[in-house]
Specification:
Elements lengths: L2 H12 L3 E2 L3 H19 L5 H11 L2 E2 L3 E3 L3 E3 L5 E3 L3 E3 L3 E4 L4 E3 L4 E2 L4 E3 L1 E3 L3 H5 L2 E4 L2 E3 L4 E2 L4 E2 L4 E2 L4 E2 L4 E2 L7 E4 L4 E5 L3
Parallel strand pairs: 2-5, 3-6, 4-7, 5-8, 6-9, 7-10, 8-13, 9-14, 10-15, 13-16, 14-17, 15-18, 17-19
Antiparallel strand pairs: 1-12, 11-12, 19-20
Helix pairs in contact: 2-3
């Protein structure tokens, strides 16, 4: 990894405000966009080729996984996925920093996981000022359709996120949340 790329990754991982237009970002974004385009162009029946390509895109992915097309991510190398994972159609992961997904996680269609926060002030935002906060999804989680998970959120083990929810804060283990913003509905039995 070049010095610039290492510096850029350290800044992303720090959660500090930074210049999101640093040179390494453009090359890495373009590389990932090309790989995602290639993946989304492959026939579903070409399972071996799809798996090999996903392993090139993602930082780590465990055994037994399915990611349906279309799938999109920003960098890919910041995403770690455990065993027995299903990502349904139109999963988007904006992985400016770490996205860690545990084992036995099921994600419904049209889900977006975001790590990036742009500056509020137009001048700073237009100059590319941003920060990134990691997202963590524990083991045995089900995220239903049309959910948005915002930066810095941790979804605890065994949690369920109801369809159409916007997750703005951490979700406790074995809790069902739903709504915009997502709120606790009830406990999930272990």
């Amino acid at each position: 990894m070049s010095d610039n790329k290492e510096l850029y990754q350290r800044l992303l991982d720090s959660g500090e405000w930074m210049d999101g237009f640093m040179p390494p970002s453009g090359r890495d974004l373009a590389r990932c966009e090309e790989l995602c385009f290639e993946l989304n162009s492959l026939r579903p029946s070409l399972r071996d080729e799809r798996e090999a390509l996903l392993r090139r895109i993602l930082g780590r992915v465990g055994a037994r996984f399915t990611i349906h097309s279309p799938f999109r991510c920003d960098f890919g190398h910041n995403i770690e996925i455990g065993d027995n994972f299903t990502g349904n159609y139109n999963l988007t992961i904006l992985d400016e920093t770490r996205v860690t997904i545990g084992d036995n996680v099921f994600i419904g269609p049209n889900v977006t996981i975001c790590t990036v926060i742009h500056a509020s002030e137009p001048e700073r935002r237009n100059a590319g000022i941003m920060k990134a906060l990691p997202v963590t999804v524990g083991d045995n989680v089900w995220i239903a359709a049309d959910v948005t998970v915002l930066p810095g959120v941790t979804i605890g083990e065994g949690a369920i996120v109801g369809a159409g929810s916007v997750v703005t804060k951490d979700v406790a283990a074995f809790t069902l949340v739903a709504g915009n913003p997502a709120r606790e509905i009830r406990r999930v039995s272990e």
